[in-house]
Amino acid sequence: MRYPQLWEAVKTTWHRDASERSSPARVLVDHVNYILTNRYRRERRFGANVRGGPAPDITNRSVNGEITVRVDGVEIRGVEIDTDPFVYGVGASLERGGVLTAVLPRDELKYIRVEFAKRS
């Protein structure tokens, strides 16, 4: 992300009905693939055509479900994708049914403390 926008880096997703598509792992995979497709086209050799080029190769197999994520000062069970050379992804289920995900540029991780707080 050359000039990342916060709305792209951090997302909260909510689904009316729970399904495989609403799991933290799946939501994180979708978010990582979105960022890779839209911000790292040249680096991943997708080409200039938005519809052309290979799809990102991040799948549920890339997800590590054995981490914790700090939300409002509390460690909760989370998921991460730490397999891509360009981005690091992290996510967690929220207590009211949403899923929080963040996809961060790997080059910027040394400047970022990955923890989250609810807006007042």
Number of strands: 5
Topology as a string of helices (H) and strands (E):
HEHEEEE
Oligomeric state of the chains in view: single chain
Structural class: alpha+beta
Quote the distance from N terminus to C terminus.
28 Å
Rg calc: 14 Å
Give the strand content: 25-35%
Q: Globular, elongated, flat, extended or rod-shaped: what is the shape?
A: globular
* Overall tally of structural domains: 1
Describe the structure.
This protein has 120 residues and is an alpha+beta fold. The protein has one domain (6-45, 56-111). It contains 2 helices and 5 strands. A 5-stranded antiparallel sheet has the order 1-5-4-3-2. A hairpin with a 5-residue loop joins strand 4 (87-93) and strand 5. The two termini are 28 Å apart.
TL;DR of this structure?
With 120 residues, the protein is an alpha+beta fold.
Q: Features of this protein?
A:
120 residues, alpha+beta, five-stranded antiparallel beta sheet, 2 helices, 5 strands
Note the topology.
Elements (H helix, E strand, L loop, with lengths): L5 H4 E4 L10 H16 L23 E9 L2 E8 L5 E7 L5 E7 L15
Antiparallel strand pairs: 1-5, 2-3, 3-4, 4-5
